[in-house]
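Usage example:
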Amino acid sequence: MGSPFQPGGTTGDRVRIVVATSVMLTFISYWRAAAIVLNDLGSSAFYAAGIAEQAIGKTAPWFILAVMLFSFAVRAVYVESCSMFVRGGVYRVVKEALGGTLAKISVSALMFDYILTGPISGVSAGQYIAGLINDLFATADAHGWIPSALHNIFHGTPHLDVNWTSVAFAVVVTIYFWWQNTKGIHESSEKALRVMQITTVMVVILLAWSAITLAKNGFQPVPWPSPGNLHFSPESLGFLKHTSFAENLPQLFGLFGIMIAFGHSVLAMSGEESLAQVNRELAHPKLKNLKRAAIIIAIYSFVFTGLTALLFVMIIPDSVRVPVYKDNLIAGLAMYLVGPQVLRLLFRAFVVVVGFLILSGAVNTAIIGSNGVLNRVSEDGVLADWFRYPHPRFGTTHRIINLVVFLQLFTIIWSRGNVYVLGEAYAFGVIWSFTFNSLAMLVLRFKYHGERGWKVPPNLRIAGHEVPIGLASVFLVLFSIAIVNLLTKSVATVAGVAFSTAFFAVFAISERVNQRKHALAQQQMKEHFQLLQRDTVDRSALGIRPGNVLVAVRDYNTLSHLKWALERIDTDEQDIVVMSARISPFGAAAYDLSTEQIFSDYEQTLFTRAVSMAESYGKHISLLVVPAADVWSAIVQTATNLESSAVVLGLSSKMTPEEQAFQLGRAWEAMPGPKRQFVLQIVHPDFRVDTFHIGPHSPSLKTEDVHLVHRLWLNITREPGLDRLHHHDILTEALTRFARDYAGRDRQDILKELRKTTGKPIITRSMGGDGDHAPVSPLSPPKPDGPKGKSVSDKGDEGPPSPPIASP
Amino acid sequence: MPYAAILVSANIEQMEMLITIAIRLLEAMFVVGGIGSLLVIILSGIEDIGTLLGSDEAEQH
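Running the assembly step on the lines above writes:
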């Protein structure tokens, strides 16, 4: 085909497509990054100490504290890896250092970690809730508040089966987040920050109240972490329980006993990998902010997980700590603080609410993290493209989400609500993913001599060679503990090895299938498309003029909005850019993606249809693919970079046009300047169009408003000294007064009036920024101006505006 | 004692000796790594204080 459709020149008969290789991200502050990681890392405070004490006895808190201290060193390794690779997670680092096979093994271990994070968090939250309900039943019964009919049903005090209630709760929460992720909720750093703020309130109250309790009642001593004080349960010796020295192992090998105990406490630092995943979204200066986030995370988790572990043993009596509260120790601690019972019960309820929030958040993080990791390996061709096929309605990688959630639900039911079993298994993924990461970083010290943002100290120079003492030390500890865990955690070893082997086999087979398929696809692609790789998007790359129209496409079955744009735009006057955003979820690759990773089979089909549609109208279109963490930010950033005058979208299947415009407006507000205003046109399948102005713009006044201003002007100009007043002076004065009232005591009244006017809630939260800045402006959902929800700037369907519509 | 029993007993002894050696090796790794990790914590901790107080230099290369 002799194509007139290649903007900026043609290459034979191939269509030229610009592929942006950097994900369009919205950046977050280090506080928000720390909050996201702490939602995962901090959640282990709710169950880690209980699991460790069941395995090694009353001395467990010292080991939890030691693990939290050691997590400072592990954090340093992650900071170094993130300073080398923006996505410095296990897969990328291990692949770079040790090759594809070990990368696949390490990512299998990481998947085991992620798959188990969901069940252990969900079940643990269920334990806290069921425990509270049972205690409330017991308290109510003691006061004679339980009706006898309930007594008869339960044959005594009503109670729930804690483990099965936890299973039911975990299943419900997992299914809820499965649906949310299928729909494509965006990882919200704001929500994470709120959860951590509430958690911090709880931690402060808990620590202060515990200090008062200790001062008043004294404390139970926590046995020192000496081999003699270690009391291993038969399960905690794993395969070693069959050896002849199992009887007195701690005494026989003093240090080895310490290592076993350390290994049983290591799950307290699970979640460090999330640091590597949020790194790509950190605002400038990246390294400094990464270090700040890492310090906050380490100190917070040391205080929360480490100190509370000590308080459990110091305050909760031995008779109930493990027998009653082993799976909900913070709740147990709340019940043994000094003060009236009602107050303690209320605080316990608060603990349960916080536990529910943070642990449910961890369930979600686990699904998002697994999805991210599998997307990442899928982008590398290690997982079949079939898994990445977008959901027909929501555009999410639903097949990966389904797989992850299926495995999580299976694990929840298999565990039958036993947190100890889940915790034991969980440690396998945690320790091995850390070990692989530190080994890879150690190898990279010798293999990669390029620039590094930061290095784990200390490093000695001997005969011109650098010896990475710090990095090697962290690796030695992790590796020795990983081996000890292999021997002493039989459940973890069997489950972890089986799971990792299965995942590894899937990866290996997928990779082979993909290699063959990609060779064919690449050949076909070469015949039809020319992919131009660009780090960032700009007009010169596409060869287009300012004031162009950006048409965002996703589903190749719903391209009516492209058709609408093609019918109305004279491409000799105004360029059309057809853009597809490939959603790169949290945890997936961020930079240096290869074009093949971004331009998949799906994009091929999508663009083939777009090009044939343009051909049928005899018009030019420019094609663009951008990887993005959030589709709205990607559209706004692309429109700004390309100096587009209009953005055309199809009507979403899950949002109203107003909601779509609101999301885009919010992304616009959040984007750092300089930014450009543009018109958003949302095309319905029947070609009706809703038009919105994105960015500040002159509002369209209703006739009665114009008359009101005029009447006011007539009256005011009759006053002495005001005869030179203009209409706009009245508006300025009115708006200034309105802003003052809104900022003052009349805010609620104003909102009430506005709600009456609009007939629906007005969202008044501040938008944009990363929490460090003052709110940009209160933004209400952009809605069409004028009567009956139609925009006065809506000119029927006469098409997008001509350039330029507004200057920034 | 039958020959097979002696052989089994010798094998068990050998196995336990191997396990003992492996355990001692792991212990040595843990001790050496632990001391080095403590250095990492102290040195990066000093740097962390600087970062938190804002006296940290701009991005190093």
